[in-house]
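Can't attach files on this board, so I'm pasting raw text. These are the components:
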Amino acid sequence: MEQALLAFSHGTGIFDFMHSPWGWPVAESLHFFGLSLLIGTVGVFDLRMLGLGSGIAYRHLHRLVPVGVLGYTINLVTGTMFLTSAPDQYLYNPAFQTKLGFMLLAGCNVFWFYTSCSTEVRTTSDSLPVSGRAKLIGTVSLLAWCAVIVCGRLITYYRPPYHWCFWC
Amino acid sequence: MVNSGPSASIPEASVLYLLATIEETGLSILLRESGVAFFSSLTLHSLAMAFVVGVNLAMAFSLLGLIPSLLNKRFEPFFTLHWWAVGLIFISGVALLIAYPAKALTNPVFFLKFMALSAGLLITRRLQHSVSGQTADPEPPLSGQLSNRIPTALAMLVCWVVTIGAGRFLAYTHSVLLASRYF
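---
Top answer:
Structure tokens for the assembled complex are below.
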């Protein structure tokens, strides 16, 4: 796995870029920018579903979701750049694995939203609260993304993780 | 990495002495050496920064016309939460600064981040002031009223991109990590 990721990184030029003087900080900056796009769009929409900013139209805030998808894509690309440039620092890192777990949870939550109550939320009157299920989805989304940030910060603390990780 | 080493720009001895004195205080040692204290400060700083930048980016996109009706009086609760997050950024930022004062205060990138952050927040305050001035309900969206909304949105985007970039580059561009190492 490690070798395959490294080969991909070398083959695509990612490795050389990431190990250039500016590569890592540029990728980190883009990664945080993508995360902020996500929080500013999906996070604001979640907070609105939880009752903050009563009167702001749900359907208007929902128009920000494509920007959130852009942020997620930026994070996916830069995250892949980190992973393939130093796979041993991530693959066996419990903080990284937990982060992926919360990203999966957030992804499933988005799927749940769009299959269960997306239309209902968008057609809800601006002054009315959304259903309990939509509020639960908003809560899970906010907590999952906060956990993703916390785990992202923890990655550095458990690097290198060879000596202590209980399940790697 | 971009760090050019200790020989790059070592400040005057008096400045280093002052920074070393701060580093040797009990609070600085606690913040630096207690894993929980430093990690908490760093994580809170990231969480609050992501929220503040995120809300500001949402406002910028609103000014650009992506969601025309976001900036009106109904957005006030988000401003309130935003300023609480700014408070958290300030507190966690001061904690990080006390932990490693020389790392930041001898690095021009820190001052660039500080200026970009301040400018970004000043624009936000101005926008909030415009929103607070509205009394009618339903209010016309602010994004439709501002004549200079595109330059304002672009200025916001620049400020927050620079803030994020400078914040990340801080970790890679310092020439002094601990001033006390020079004594």
